Amino acid sequence: MENKEQQVRKLYEQLISAWNHRNAKGMADLFSKNGESIGFDGSQSNGPEEIFSHLDPVFRDRPTAPYVTKIKEIRFLGEDIAIVRAIAGMVPPGESDIKPDVNTHQTLLLSFQNGKWNIELFQNTPAQFHGRPELVEKMTDELRELL
């Protein structure tokens, strides 16, 4: 049986897999009924239905790039609350390298309800590091190691 950290890690991996497979329903189903998603561009969606309605046309109409991710921290704030911090980069379709200007910090707040972990908040924050190009390069290099 998986321990809590493994369960939380698996949920994050399911979220990333759903994005990488352009599966809006798969992503939306990982959220609690009040879960919120804040996208890279700042767009907000609340609840699985709205998250699905936001993502479905994105996946249908745009060639979204898959994520390359690395979990930096999993922290428990109690028995049934966890935070996941990760870094992510994207490899645009038809390319083979990470595009540094869309690197992001990903933060998830998870809750354990009805016997399973659910996403309460998923936020993508652009990792622009204004005026500090060495930090962009460092993050990009760290993600490139995973390619």
UniProtKB/TrEMBL annotation:
Pfam families: DUF4440. Residues 8-119 form the DUF4440 domain. Transmembrane segments: none annotated. This is DUF4440 domain-containing protein. SUPFAM superfamilies: NTF2-like. The lineage of its organism: Bacteria, Bacillati, Bacillota, Bacilli, Bacillales. NCBIfam families: SgcJ/EcaC family oxidoreductase. It comes from the Bacteria. InterPro entries: DUF4440 (IPR027843), NTF2-like_dom_sf (IPR032710), Steroid_delta5-4_isomerase (IPR011944).
